[in-house]
Amino acid sequence: MSSSPLPGDASNDPTTDQTGRFVRQPNGRVRPLSPHLQIWRFHITMWGSILNRMAAGALSVGTVFIGAWLAAAAFGPDAYAGFASIMGSPLGLLIWFGITLAAAYHLTAGIRHLVWDAGSGLTPRSANNLTVVSIVAALVIAVGFWIVLFATGKVVL
Strand locations in the chain, DSSP E? Predict the structure, then answer.
């Protein structure tokens, strides 16, 4: 039997490894470094996961704006008028649109995960398709909502 290790053998001594593919764990065992650094390629479901986390963060920040809106309403007409003038500006409307888009994407991504949790759509192709659908649906929902707001005169520039 040959004393040289087989390719991918995790028993290699990391001191002689020139590739950096092996690491010594705190318990002294030599294990291969996770292969994602070498072979993992970026795909749409990764974007979906990243966007969902970003949407959750944006919604957390958005609660500050909603809290300020409620506080302004509680402090009377002058406070509310000041808040409305700031948040009714183009920058304020962009913030509200961002909150709407984050909520729409968080909703559609949640539905996508519900489908996955039911055991459907787990093949790579269907998972990719569901992710694309959730992103596009969120855009359609958010833009459609704001089109209705502008068309009905609820929001004006």
Answer: 22-24, 30-32
